Predict the structure of ImmA/IrrE family metallo-endopeptidase.
Amino acid sequence: MYYTYTEDYIAAFYRRMNIYQPEQLNYIAIAEALNISIFYWDSPSSALFSSHFNYIILKEQKQKELLWEDFCHELAHVLFHTGKQFNLTPAWISYQEQKANYFMYHAAVPTFMLEQQSFWSVDKVAATFNVSNEFATKRLEDYVRNKQFR
């Protein structure tokens, strides 16, 4: 079976933390395991990092699904990006954001966990992985489309 680099990375990443099932996906526990401090505020979510400290600042929201989705996006920035975005060209910022969004979908709903069952509906993905229906729809569409090439 063929997996993308991101799918392999996420599977290994979660397995190193002994995360194998959807109910183990908890952004607070993941942040603690990675020594990332989490803060909340009323502005859009963001990540701050240096060689010694990592912070994910999440937009305060009532929906836990949106917190999980935002966390996964910001986690990509902490893991893969350095520097300040306002010093970057618009094209490079766009690239980083696209990469973080791609990572977000796979981190929030990992392929290796999707493959543990043979049938998924949008509602089931949303409920199982604590994501919004819109998020589940896109992730499931991508999963089904990519599965035909495996």
